[in-house]
């Protein structure tokens, strides 16, 4: 009997983005405080088809701007740093 191989469904990806130890420190601190930032697909499409979503204590906020995949991930780490600095300083 011939083996069948199934291809994984293709999905949308914002690509990869390098992060630093400081980025992970900020993100880890935010996660412990129930602050989560995520890159999500925008409804618009095109080159700038990614949004940044922020969840804090059960409430969701969406950044009104659209970004390219790389820029959206950069913005995500900026948000983590913003909330870290705002609450630590």
- Low-confidence segments: none
Helix and strand pattern: HEEEH
> What spatial form do the alpha-carbon principal axes imply?
globular
Helix content: 25-40%
Separation of the first and last Cα atoms = 66 Å
The number of helical elements comes to 2
From the alpha-carbon coordinates, what is the Rg to the nearest angstrom? 16 Å
How many extended strands?
A: 3
Strand content: 15-25%
Mean pLDDT metric: 86
- Strand arrangement, major sheet: 1-2-3
Structural class: alpha+beta
| Largest sheet features | 3 strands, antiparallel
Question: Can you tell me about this structure?
Answer:
There is one protein chain. With 89 residues, this protein is an alpha+beta fold. 36% of the residues lie in helices and 20% in strands. It has 2 helices and 3 strands, in the order αβββα. The chain has helices at 21-32, 69-88; strands at residues 35-41, 50-56, 59-62. A 3-stranded antiparallel sheet has the order 1-2-3. β2 (50-56) and β3 (59-62) form a beta hairpin. α1 (21-32) crosses α2. It is globular. The chain starts with 20 loop residues before the first helix and ends with a helix. The model has no long low-confidence stretch (mean pLDDT 86).
In terms of topology, how is this protein built?
Layout: H1 21-32, E1 35-41, E2 50-56, E3 59-62, H2 69-88
Q: Main attributes?
A:
89 residues; alpha+beta; 3-stranded antiparallel sheet; 3 strands
